[in-house]
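Help! Submission page says 'invalid entity' but I think these are all valid:
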Amino acid sequence: MVMDYMLSEEEQMMIETARAIAVEKMKPIREHYDEKEEFPWEIVKEFAQSDLCGAYIPEEYGGFGKGIMGLVLVVEELCKVDGAIALSLAATALGTLPILISGNEEQKKKYLPDIASGKKLAAFGLTEAGAGSDATGMATTAVKDDDYYILNGTKCFITNGGDAEVYTIFAKTNPARGARGISCFIVEKGTPGFAFGKKEKKMGIRASSTRELIFDNCRVHKDQLIGKEGHGLITAQATLDNSRPGVAAQALGIASGALDEAVEYARKRVQFGQPIASFQAIQHLLAEMATEVEAARALLYASARMIDSGTVKRTSKESAMAKLFCSEVAMRVTTNAVQIFGGYGYTREYPVEKMMRDAKITTLYEGTSQIQKNEIALNLIKESAAKSK
Amino acid sequence: MNIIVCIKQVPKTADVQIDPETGRLKREGVESIINSFDEYAIEEGVRIKEKTGGKVIVITMGPPQAESALREAVSKGADEAVLVSDRAFGGADTLATSYALSSAIKFIGSYDIILCGKQASDGDTAQVGPEIAETLNIPHIAYVKKIELIDDKSIKIERMMEYGCDLIESPVPVLLTVVKEINTPRIVSLKGKMVAKKAVIKVLNATDVDADTKKTGLNGSPTQVMKIFAPLQKNGSGEKFSGAAKEVATALVKRLSEIRII
């Protein structure tokens, strides 16, 4: 049984469509893509054909217009079956949000329809070797030259890197100004001076490509600047406020999928002459997993609804809470799923070891769990200070 | 190219219950779906339209609740949907069904291709498609697994046979019944679902399609169901002959002629 989250008919439609793709198309090939570490273009085509790529993009730009809640529902449903393949879509959302949030009308018209239709994927380029949790430590620069900016530097760990067509890239336009000296640009694949470096070999999410982006005197026209010069980090923060629920949804989907696998296995696996589901040790594990998954879902949906309502200016705290909780739940639930499967769970014969590997990244990217806690605490203190004024 | 796809709403479950009194299918309390073979017919119709232009009209004969099957067909890419529904059509066998559908197709008017699934999962007769073609006096090809070529004058297809395929060319209009091998139906898009929600389903009754009610429903059904049963599976264990080659060959030939195989 699913709890009633008062989903609209259209939200139900998105879930059904995502489930159909996940079960009919992704499930049969998920081991292959994990094993081969290939990019899942055949599934991207399915996402495109079924309109899922535009779930969160407004209708006026060719999307389905269902906001962050739409993105969350789609990503969760896909990740119940595979948390890596779905990233082609989820990471595109991350790369698209800067345009959606801070882009001008021309930029939105130019890029959003192709992303909504699934014709193009996007990627978000903030992280660098020396700038992880501390984005202000980035070394990539963008130097103004008449109508152009000249980009130099290397981004790393970029999801969809190499496979995406549209990149939102952060670079220092005024290094002296620190956090206020960073700007955001749209850079298209194929722009001279923009190349791809090494592809990472990862523990999990292996169907998702993670590459370096290398900028070597890459000339980007000033029309490609998103928002104002120096406002890059504001755009990045607003983007993360909107995108972290997407990571939370990925984590929740993986956890939910692992829970289903564990319950089914516990019912079928016989030891000591009875199904292991009849043992209280297993029952209590399953009960904890199910309760945590449902609590994670409730928190995530509430955060997504809050973002979509548009009534609050910033949702940094709530987005961080959803991401922190869902990703930590995903790690615990998938680890316990492997525990319930026993030795079989550790083999690649069963899907739970992959779910455990895939879950780990959700506690790391778009801010580690520790960074989420910083964000939550900072906002708690700010809110309290504002009240006592 | 105008394409008409005939579909049937059937019970979802694979093991259909049969009323022992009437010999008819028990539909109460069972979820209804589009007959699975018809899904392939819809997909093929939409693919032809995407290639050649034109429109896909999906049509079914059934009670008012069959509308949901038509709406689903619209979500899969059909442009128009027609429900042929009248009490006078109730209790129809394959002949009366094909007559009612043919009357509706004549009413719709112009068409190039009519597509049907090879058979329905409840009745399993595989008769309605070919009977529609006979009633409309157009050619038909059953068990189509591939459409090779199609233009406004003719069509070239592969027909699936027990061993291999027949390559057949036919003038259009033509009726085709399709097998599962012909395509993989697409997953319904979100926009398709939205279009289906708002789609207007045209309902036609016996008078609208100018059907002779002597030929419809129970009145028009020469089939009388005496008894319904699952045929027994033949579990022949075979016979073995042993001995010297010459003796075995003689015994085998003798046995084969006894049972009139040679």
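Support: the input was valid. A stray whitespace character was the problem, and the output above is from the cleaned input. The first strand of chain A starts at residue 122 and ends at 125.
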